[in-house]
Amino acid sequence: MQHPDIHFERLGEKQEVAVIRLTRGAKRNALNDGLILALRDLFENMPEGVRAAVIAGEGPHFCAGLDLSELKERDAGQGLHHSRMWHAALERVQYGPVPVIAALQGAVVGGGLELASACHIRVADASTFYALPEGSRGIFVGGGGAVRIPKLIGAARMTDMMLTGRVYNAQDGERIGLAQYLVPEGAAFDKALELAVRVAQNAPLTNYALMHALPRIAEQPADQGFFTEAMMAAIAQSAPEAKTRLNDFLEGRAAKVRKQD
Ligand code: 1HE
């Protein structure tokens, strides 16, 4: 994958983790159309053997959102298609081939928060702050934020962020559910990579179920959700890998669950 504003590399013992770094630091990793399309292409063509991904930004900020310099010339029809382009790209992140962990620092704003909310796990360092400045720029979210962000923090908090320009700091962001992990300043990437290596060790069907079945089940009425859950459970447990792992536990070869300090 070649794009001037994305650095792609593979890490981990078996090169099982894809690291995708936005390298447009001079523009605070603002997402122009080229970058959005490159992200889409990258997730559509993830190399064989990759089992988890980390997304990070170059410099002190994760992402300043939509590249505002590209916005001003668009009419309504172009705006619609532009938003749908973001949807298609971030859909590939959320429902793509592998779980994605966002390493957050500094600004996670506007479309940057939309990108982060399409990821499966968010790790924020202490410098992180979250905002939806669309409200004050006279626009609206267009990258799937209206669907994904209320699922994380509720519609009331998102409404407040957009109506008042409220900025959440790293601690409050973790408290309300914008990130699942809060780590000291500068530590987000290492923590995200550590988690990605761990996620990559799961049975692929378990990861698939979490990425593709769980969010759909959560949208279904309970009766249908229970049924879909049963289907997914049956498929996952029938895989040879599941049987091996269960035997490993029963024969004392697998790690037990231990209390964390
Ligand atoms: C940009 C952008 C951008 C920075 N588009 N160029 N997003 C926003 O409304 C956030 C706008 N950005 C900011 O509030 C600040 O830049 C930051 C808090 C992210 C960082 O501040 P700082 O002081 O570190 O950097 P800076 O000096 O403001 O910016 C450095 C350069 O990046 C500067 O360009 P330069 O040529 O003068 O050096 C900025 O113009 C440029 N830059 N952010 C374009 N966003 C699918 S719909 C989604 C809708 C949205 O995302 S709306 C929210 C957009």
Write structural notes for this entry.
It is a single chain. The chain is α/β, with parallel strands linked by helices and 261 residues long. The protein has 2 domains: 6-200, Alpha-Beta Complex (2-enoyl-CoA Hydratase, Chain A, domain 1), CATH 3.90.226.10; 204-250, Orthogonal Bundle (Lyase 2-enoyl-coa Hydratase, Chain  A, domain 2), CATH 1.10.12. The chain contains 11 helices and 9 strands. The strands form 2 sheets. Strands 1-2-3-4-6-9 form a 6-stranded mixed sheet, sandwiched between helices. A hairpin with a 5-residue loop joins strand 1 (6-11) and strand 2. Helix 1 (33-44) runs parallel beside helix 2 and helix 9 (204-219) packs antiparallel against helix 10 (222-238). The longest helix has 19 residues, at 76-94. The radius of gyration is 19 Å and the shape is globular. It starts with 5 loop residues before the first strand and ends in an 11-residue tail after the last helix. The mean pLDDT is 96. The site of 3-methylmercaptopropionate-CoA (MMPA-CoA) has 21 residues, from strand 5 and helix 4.
